[in-house]
Amino acid sequence: MHRKNVVIVVAVLAALGLLWMVGCGGGETTTTTAAPTTETTAVATTDTTAPAGPSGDPILIGAVVSATGPASPLGEPERAVLAMMETQINDAGGVLGRPVQIIIEDDQSNPKEAVTATQKLIQQDKVVALIGCTTSGATLAIKPITAEAGIPQLAMAASNAITDEPPMDWIWRTPQKDALAAARALKYVAETLGVTKIAVLHDENAFGASGAAEIAKSAPGLGLEIVATESYKTDDTDVTAQLTKIKGANPEALIVWGTNPGPAVAAKNLKQLGMEIPYIGSHGIANKAFIDLAGDAAEGVVFPAGKLLAVESITDPAQKAVVSQFVAAFEAATGGKPNTFAGHAFDALALLVNAINTAQSTDAAAIQSALNATTGFPGTGGIFNYSSTDHDGLSVDDMIMIKIEGGAWVWAK
Amino acid sequence: MSFDQFLQYIVSGITNGSIYALTALGFTLIYNATDIINFAQGEFVMLGGLTAVSLHRLGLPLPVAFCGAVLIVMLVGIIFELLAIRPLLKASVLAQIIVTIGASLAFRTFAMIFWGRDSLPLPAFSGETPIKIFGARMTPQSLWVMGLTLVIVVALQLFYRRTLAGKAVRACSVNPEAARLMGISYSRVVLISFAVSAAISAAGGVLITPSSFMGYGSGAMIGLKGFAAAILGGLGSPIGAVLGGLALGVLESLAVGVVSAGYKDAVAFLILLAVLFVRPQGLMGQRPVEKV
Amino acid sequence: MNGGRLLTFARRHSAFAMFAVVALGAPIFLNNAYYLSVLAFTATRLMISLGLNLLMGQAGQISLGHAAFVGIGAYGSAIMTTRWHMDPWLAMALAACIAAFAAVIIGIPTLKLKGHYLALATLGVGEIVFILLVQTKSLTNGTDGLTGIPALAVGGLRFTQYNPRAFHLLVWGVALVMLLISLNLSDSRVGRSLKGLHRSEVAARSLGVDTAFHKVQIFVVSAVFASIAGSFYAYYVQYISPDSFTLTFSVLLVTGVVIGGLGSVWGAVWGTLLVALLPEYLRQYDDYTNLVFGILVIVIMIFLPTGMIGVPALLGKWRRGISGGGRPSSGAAMTEGTGTADGGTV
């Protein structure tokens, strides 16, 4: 019996060791671009088809996105965009004459997986910079790792803590901070709608909770009173109970903060209960999916978004050019229109490439300085102005209010 | 809390409770034949809804999409039983349960790859004009769900109590060996149970998609609540499953009103635990007789 | 005679000794922070699985909410170190005490339930704890999570992700201690009474064994193991959020223990290694990872219904060329698992 165990132990450990070495044989991994909707090159080798193509050692950039799990509706467009841009960049001659290789890892919407993925990217793949993550939780989990390793990290998540809490030297973000989106929405409620009593319904996940906290913080300053706050779980099938409770407090407007499908369910339920108050959403519903889901109930819904959604609202010609080109490329590659999350990924990579080009180097410290010196950079989210103290780059003016009319997005001035 | 609000909580609770009840019925069917808790039950609901979405997108009218989805998922249930459950029928219940866990993961990932990450809608079956019940409002879609639940529970009750086949199934759950000796084909009973259970869940899934949408991950929570409802009502009793489902739905709804939405599941579970401590076999379950 | 006893002792623990040597020696060959980070998480998973195995395999109970105790350990340590600036070691110990206390409170009423009812009750407990973690924002920071958790340290030596070898030795050292405890418990008086409990609670009670007490006792041990694992997790990642302590995690833990082989301590080890390492290996399949994993789980259970510890028996069967038959009959399989675990280092 005991000898049998010894043999088993040896055998299993040997098998594991063998499997490990074969499966994860050191060096490059196979999880490069795998955008499901693009048929373009999925293998990023050092060769391209262009005659005067980039040559030399590839510049390795890591990316950690939530391609699976609850945050995947946000992470999947990000992954698609990174894959698309990798091809574009390489076709245009690469960066510093060298091809770019983006190694994309999936964190499964779980901070723990993000940690493992980041370790792999930094230690095994030896990336020069990292784009990640989709969710605030994962971003916060890996922030100390990139900071310790001195690798620049571009985050695509909105939580304030990302740039408000140390370590802050090695992380920049591309989405509007939670605070900005909330401020824009509240500004609309207070000034354009002119009401004073509002109710808040938010998703219990990090996105919704963070937004609700920001709203609570900023509302009094704009003369708004929050008469009711309720929450729902991301996959709750019905929020009539929450809305019934809110109804009892007689709010004049309802702010719903979350990502699909919750806000769409809320819109339908609001109509079902006959509550005829204005519905103000978050930038989480800045996508076609919300309109498809909510149908008629989406009419009249207003939400803050980057100018990506209403290109006509962009006044800066450079930004207009960038955004139009992005929308066209995205449509060509995937057949659909990009949403804000796709935009965050685009901006992240664009800023990074710009920094590398400016610094004429892939040295981490050089990239860091270049990023901090980036000003007036047109992106899909707005005009980015970083500095050594401001790693957020955007301001309230980069957001506009969009209204849904006739099933389409209209700029609500 | 005003009376109108209270009424709305009840109405909403019954609406949600119906889908929990339908899922609980699915659990009950399989449990009655095999002692297994099918962790993939929620996924049958999800597959039903998403299959209907695809069929509808292909241009099929809603009723056809409904039937098609139910049939397809029933087929999936049958194949699943043949491939994954049948080989283990003589093994431990725990092994079978782990298999359903693996299946749940596989189904979910398949759905993610096939239908994408977003939730998808279906048009409402009979419009969206809310029905007013005194001060509360309900969608016509909810009536469909409640109607289906009622039809199925009555059918199941009659089946188990009044038909020979139903009694055969119950015999299988009590003592498979003896049932086999009596000429009942145990494996056929299990197969049929899985098929019907999958069909019921799929039907429920199609009916809730118009109002709640369906995504690859939607099955997880529905499965969980369905399981809780089945336990609350007493495993093995169809009426118990429905009672448990409705009770759970109403409890949650009232918890939102009385406590807060964030704690509604906690309150529901606490009450469920309290019920189990007083009545360990659930509301309508049989007091287990332990053979010594 | 003494030499004989020494030899028996060495032989009994030879499997353990070999495993320990390999586990502790791994950093020499795998000097890569990524591999070591995977192994670090595996060690914490092993701690939890050993506790779960004692509960499920030996005592015949089930817990679908064990993530709750991991969460108590993680959050307890995190809160005590970040908000009250306690020493990390002390915080870990205190968190374990809280987990033990919680296990007593929860265990006494819950462990009276049986089978699927117990499964749901533990699931409910797990959900309630998760909800508390999300909602009590003033304490836990809700979904934003807690950052800046300090690392464990002894003198100047810090056990962190950035000093992976040191952390590896520490966390695997503790896991191995727990493994040794589990192996010895299996064979001791407590272990035997647990097994008696599993086979027939009524018989055990009729023999004067206080079954309720024993069940709670083992529940507490499993909770403490889980809590310590949670604390290590918190000190390693230095950031925690409720996302890591979900029902999915609890179910995965149970899956690992059952796949390994219920009732066998080594089974828990193999099962954990499989469930922790396989997904890393499957990473290359991108979206299909979980599909492959799910199917593999099904396939493994079909061919090895008693878990991975059934491999020797299966190989033996093939070697002897016995056709068909040989599958464990209904009901007996549950106890078959414990049948092979009749003492020794199994």
Largest sheet: spatial strand order of chain B: 1-2
Protein chain pair with the most extensive contact, residues per chain: B-C, 52 and 54 residues
Q: How many alpha or pi helices of chain B?
A: 11
CATH class membership of the largest domain in chain A: Alpha Beta
Mean pLDDT of chain B: 90
Helix fraction of chain A, binned, reads: 40-55%
Kindly identify the CATH topology of the largest domain in chain A. Rossmann fold
Cα-atom radius of gyration of chain A: 23 Å
Strand ordering within the main sheet of chain A: 2-1-3-4-5
Apparent shape of chain B: globular
Cα(first) to Cα(last) distance of chain B is 52 Å
Order of secondary-structure elements of chain A:
HEHEHEHEHEHEHEHEHEHEHHHEEEE
Over the alpha carbons, how many angstroms does the gyration radius of chain B reach? 19 Å
Describe this structure in words.
The complex is a heterotrimer of chains A (413), B (292) and C (346). Chain A is α/β, with parallel strands linked by helices and 413 residues long. Chain A folds into two domains: 59-177 and 322-395, Rossmann fold, CATH 3.40.50.2300; 179-310 and 399-412, Response regulator (Rossmann fold). Helix content of chain A is 43%, strand content 16%. Chain A contains 13 helices and 14 strands. In chain A, the strands form four sheets. A five-stranded parallel β-sheet of chain A has the order 2-1-3-4-5, with helices on both faces. In chain A, strands 7-6-8-9 form a four-stranded parallel β-sheet, sandwiched between helices. Chain A starts with a helix and ends with a strand. The model of chain A is unreliable at 23-50 (pLDDT under 50). Chain B has eleven helices and two strands; from the N terminus they run ααααββααααααα. Chain B has helices at residues 3-34, 41-57, 62-85, 93-115, 140-162, 164-174, 176-181, 186-212, 218-233, 238-258, 264-278; strands at 131-133, 136-138. The model of chain B has no long low-confidence stretch (mean pLDDT 90). Chain C has one domain (2-340): ABC transporter involved in vitamin B12 uptake, BtuC (Orthogonal Bundle). With 346 residues, chain C is mainly α. Classes of the chains: A alpha/beta (413), B mainly alpha (292), C mainly alpha (346). At the B-C interface, α4, α9 and α11 of B face α6, α12, α14 and α16 of C.
